[in-house]
Amino acid sequence: MGVNNCGSTTLLLELKLHNNNLSGNIPSEIGQMSRLLNLSLSANNLSGSIPEQIGNCTQLLDLNLSQNALVGNIPSQVGNLPSLETLDLSQNMLESKLPLELGEMKSIETMNLSHNRISGSIPKSFDHCFSLISIDISYNQLEGPLPNTSAFQKAPFDSLRNNKGLCGNVARLRPCSQS
Known about the structure:
By secondary structure, the chain is mainly beta.
């Protein structure tokens, strides 16, 4: 889609193009779809990084970019989406650390970041992410203590497994040292 014919797409409410063999990058023009409520580009061959302009889609309730070949970091702008309830970035090649903005999301209920290469510790901001019901951070490079919210504390071990060194008072995780 060219930049010139993007004008008509600003009224789009849903864009579901999952499982379509799409390749290439997610265009930065995605940010012009400011009324978008639901964006699903999962199960394609998309590569490159997640465009920061996705933060302009301030009405988004559901964002699913899973099962692609996306690289780079999770843009902090994703954490500034005020209405986002479901975020699925699983099964990509996303790296770097979790932006602290992700833990400041007021409406987020379900977050799946599993099967990536995310490293570092989980930001302290997640201690106040009270709307979160379900989290999956398995198969990453995360380490350090789990946030003290029920989504993490009651998470099944399968949602936490295969990380570099997560610790906490959760079944089959090692306890954090008191130092």
